[in-house]
Please model this.
Amino acid sequence: MDEHDAIWAETTDGGLLRQLFGYYPTMHDAIVRELRFDARRNVTMILDYQDSPEGGGEELAVRVELRWAGVRSVDFDVRENFLMGLECSRDGDDLRTTFREGFGIAGTLVSERFEAILSLLDPIVEPAESLRLVCEWDDPEL
Model:
């Protein structure tokens, strides 16, 4: 198991996504519906992902919530609300998520923890719309 797969295996629904698709997802061509930042150094990305399962067959569609906690840095180039794919790796005690260069969101996010939650199986995937960007600064100490 490579490093990317090992990180996905540690998430809540990584194993379920692997059972559905036959591999841990790279989120290539995913549509990003929402990108949320909060004052507690958390980032949440809600996306729709479609791909064929390993061995062929009818495409599967899922809505997945990706969560990063203890975010140390975010460096994104946002052109559209698509992902060309992402790759997870370890950087010492931190996790590095690299968003592949392309026509959508590219860059890196470094965090203490990464989580993947399957929110919906077979969502109604609508054409790409604008990205909803939410920043929550409700911490009274800020």
